[in-house]
TrEMBL record:
The gene is mucB. This is Sigma factor algU regulatory protein MucB. GO terms for biological process: regulation of polysaccharide biosynthetic process. Keywords: Periplasm, Signal. One of its GO terms (molecular function) is antisigma factor binding.
C-alpha cells in the first residue's frame, strides 16, 4: 500500500467524520508528458510483481525520509518526515509535520506477518477465500510507463486506470529495490489532478536508537492499530449492518466503534478504500458532500422504523460512488 497514505488515513479515520487529509495535485500537461515520453508495457507478470512488492517488501524496510504533499484545494506544498522500522516482528511508524506547529502521528502494533484482505487483494492471493473476488486486473487497466528517478532512486512508473466510473486513476512510482511508493499522483474521471505526494529524500536502514530517542512534540497523537483482520481465511460481513450496493471489487475488511455509538465499516478493492460511519441521530441529519483533494465525505440520513441515523461515507472515491453507497445501508 501507499505507506505515507496509510499513516495519513489512520489519522483521518481516527478523527471520524469530516476531517480529510490526502495526497496530490499536479498539472495535466505533466501527466501527458510522462505518458508520451515513456515506453508503455502492460506485461501482466511484471505488473503482478510490482503490486506484490508494494504489499510485502515495503512493510519490511527500515527507512526514514522526507516527502511533500499537495492537493487541488490548496496549492501550497506541505512537508512531512516519516520513520518506519521493524523490531521483534512489529512495525512502528512516526510521521512529523514540517510546516506549521510541531505535530506528530505515531502508530505501532502491526505484526510483520499480518496480511490483511487488502494486502491479499493487492498481491492477487485470494484463492484460499471462500468467495469469488475480483482480481485487480478486472477493475483497473495497468500500464508500466518506464523508469524514472525519484529522491535519487530508480523507480518503475505504474499507471492504474479504472475500468468503471466508481474509482480514480493512479500514477505510482514504485522503488525498484524496496517496493516503496516514492511518488503518487491521483486524478479524477475527467483527468483533472486531485493530489500528489513525492519523496525528496530517502535513507534506508537508519540508526533506530536515534529515531526512538527523538523527543515527541507537545501535539502528538497515537493512531489506532489497523482495524483489518490479520490473515483472514474467509470474506466476512459487517455485524448489525448490510451494504446493499458497493462498486465491483470492494470487500468488507473491518469494523469498530469510534467515539460513542458510531460504527465504522471499512472496505477496499486492494488499491482504493472507503469507510462508512453510522451514528444514531435524534433529529434530521444534514445531507451533502464535503471534499478536500481526492477525499470526500458524503452525508446522508437513514430511518429504520422510529430510529434515525446519520450516515457518512469517507474515502478517495468519486461523489456519485459515495452517495450511492450512503443510500444503500440497511440493518442486518
Amino acid at each position: 500500500m501507499l505507506i505515507p497514505h496509510v499513516i495519513l488515513s489512520g489519522y483521518r479515520y481516527g478523527h471520524a467524520i469530516g476531517l480529510c487529509l490526502c495526497l496530490l495535485m499536479v498539472l495535466l500537461p505533466s501527466v501527458k508528458a510522462v505518458a508520451e515520453t515513456s515506453q508503455v508495457s502492460s506485461n501482466n507478470e511484471e505488473v503482478a510483481s510490482l503490486l506484490a512488492k508494494m504489499a510485502t517488501r515495503s512493510h519490511q524496510v527500515n527507512y526514514q525520509g522526507t516527502f511533500t504533499y499537495q492537493h487541488k484545494d490548496n496549492p501550497a506544498l506541505q512537508g512531512f518526515r516519516i520513520f518506519h522500522w521493524v523490531e521483534d516482528g512489529i512495525q512502528y511508524e512516526r510521521l512529523q509535520h514540517l510546516n506549521g506547529p510541531e505535530r506528530e502521528i505515531s502508530r505501532s502494533g502491526r505484526a510483520l506477518d499480518c496480511k490483511s484482505l487488502g494486502d491479499q487483494l493487492l498481491q492477487g492471493k485470494i484463492l484460499n477465500m471462500g468467495a469469488r473476488l475480483a482480481q485487480l486486473t478486472e477493475l483497473y487497466r495497468f500500464e508500466i510507463r518506464g523508469i524514472e528517478r525519484v529522491a535519487g532512486r530508480n523507480a518503475t512508473v505504474l499507471l492504474a486506470i479504472p475500468l468503471d466510473n466508481y474509482r480514480y486513476s493512479y500514477f505510482l512510482s514504485i522503488d525498484n529495490e524496496t517496493g516503496l511508493v516514492l511518488k503518487s499522483w491521483l486524478v479524477d474521471e475527467s483527468a483533472r489532478p486531485l493530489e500528489r505526494y513525492q519523496f525528496v529524500e530517502l535513507e534506508l536502514n537508519p540508526d533506530l536508537t536515534q529515531i526512538k530517542q527523538l523527543p515527541k512534540p507537545r501535539l502528538h497523537r497515537d493512531a489506532d492499530i489497523a482495524v483489518p483482520e490479520c490473515n483472514p481465511s474467509d470474506v466476512k460481513e459487517p455485524s448489525g449492518w448490510h451494504l446493499n450496493w458497493a462498486p465491483p471489487g470492494f470487500v468488507f475488511v473491518g469494523q469498530k466503534q469510534v467515539r460513542d455509538h458510531i460504527d465504522m465499516l471499512m472496505y477496499t478493492d486492494g488499491l482504493t478504500s472507503f469507510s462508512i460511519f453510522i451514528e444514531p441521530s435524534s433529529q434530521a441529519s444534514p445531507e451533502g458532500v464535503a471534499q478536500r483533494g481526492a477525499t470526500l465525505a458524503a452525508m446522508d440520513q437513514l430511518e429504520i422504523g422510529s430510529e434515525r441515523y446519520r450516515v457518512t461515507v469517507v474515502g478517495e472515491i468519486p461523489v456519485v460512488t459515495a452517495q450511492k453507497i450512503a443510500q444503500n445501508i440497511s440493518r442486518r
